[in-house]
Amino acid sequence: MVFRHTKRPGFWLGFIDFFTAGLFFVWYMPRGLQAELETILGHRVRPYWQVYLLGIPDLFLYPLVWMARIAEELKVKAEELGLPGPHTSWKHMFWWNVLGCLCFGPMIATKRFFDTLNRVEEELNRRGEAAAGADVCQK
User: Which of 41, 48, 99, 119 is the most buried (most CB within 10 A)?
Assistant: First the structure.
């Protein structure tokens, strides 16, 4: 798998997602982002539509923790690749979404997440390692 979407505008994706109450990523994740995350992280990731449904009873705490965990794994991957920071992280994703929800917090958290994701994908494309990790997700 060669990563073609290495310039995702994280702030605007977060903006759209915030104002659609999370439904935007229910639509957006299966259109390539899910497979890219699985390839980069090296394991299957629960589909976001399931995460969204599980979040309804607990006021969307589950999707927040789910995304924060992915952000932490992505940070570890960026550090393994030797990419300079700042990176996304569990704390960054969680606290910007919780404490910053009255202003632009979710957009800032999503921007940092996609900035890190874009840099990881660019580095994997540069190294040619994207194709090597693609077979992990086929199982």
Answer: 48
The H-or-E segment that residue 10 falls in is: helix 10-19
Residue with tokens 């606290």: 95
Q: How many CB atoms lie within 10 A of CB 116?
A: 23
Q: Locate all alpha helices (DSSP H) within 21-84, ordered by sequence.
A: 23-28, 33-41, 48-55, 61-80
Per 3-state DSSP, the chain is made up of helix, strand and coil in percentages (nearest 5) of 70, 0, 30
Q: Distance of alpha carbon 87 from its chain centroid, rounded?
A: 12
